[in-house]
Amino acid sequence: MARWIEIEGLGRVLVERSARARRMNITVRPFRGVRVAVPRGVSFEEAAAFARRKRDWIAAQLEKARRSEAQHRAFERECGLRLNPQAARDKLVARLEELSRRHGFVYNRVFVRRQKTRWGSCSARRNISLNINIVRLPPELRDYILLHELMHTRFLNHSRRFWTELEKIAGDVKALNARMKRYSAMLL
């Protein structure tokens, strides 16, 4: 069950019952807006009052979301709206294989998907998942993500040793991570 409410200065807010919520929770997402998750036993009126009390926080988060939306639109204009999924997959898998051979990594399977929250991941079974939008990144950042996931085939964590070994083959990881933040809007 869900209900839209209007909060002055913010606009529409979705108030939605959630079986998983243990307490009231507000999320603000680019292109999706504001949502208040309401646990059982809490009325929609209480949730609306909660959202109104958090108005300043919501406004700040909405501003960040709007900046992310604008950045995402700019990337779409710059990189093009159309992305051929098979060509992107082929390009990413070929480069992953090349980097794997060059640096002696072994992985199991590769999945290329339209992930919304991450650039990639590596499972304990050495299966690597990659975000299709990696193909739109500059080549050095693309390689950095691929090397990062390959390094997870050796270290399933972000320990000091993980970063030390990654830096040996990828270069200045702090600088690369800082550059990656500029492209976070592509994850939307």
Q: DSSP helix count?
A: 6
**Uncertain segments of ≥5 residues (pLDDT<50)?**
none
Radius of gyration, in angstroms, nearest whole number:
20 Å
How much strand?
15-25%
Major beta sheet, strand line-up: 1-2-4-3
Number of strands: 7
Shape: elongated
Percentage of residues in helical conformation: 40-55%
Average pLDDT score: 90
Element pattern in H and E: EEEEHHHEEEHHH
Compose a concise summary of this entry.
The chain has 188 residues and is α/β, with parallel strands linked by helices. Helix content is 46%, strand content 19%.
SSE order and pairing:
Blueprint: E1 2-7, E2 11-17, E3 25-29, E4 33-38, H1 44-53, H2 55-79, H3 85-103, E5 110-113, E6 120-122, E7 128-131, H4 139-151, H5 160-170, H6 173-181
Parallel strand pairs: 2-4, 5-7
Antiparallel strand pairs: 1-2, 3-4, 6-7
Helix pairs in contact: 3-4, 4-5
Features:
single chain; four-stranded mixed sheet; elongated; 6 helices; alpha/beta; 7 strands; 188 residues; three-stranded mixed sheet
Structural features, described:
By secondary structure, this protein is of the alpha/beta class. It has six helices and seven strands, in the order ββββαααβββααα. Helix 3 (85-103) packs across helix 4 (139-151) and helix 4 (139-151) runs antiparallel to helix 5 (160-170). The two termini are 26 Å apart. The model has no long low-confidence stretch (mean pLDDT 90).
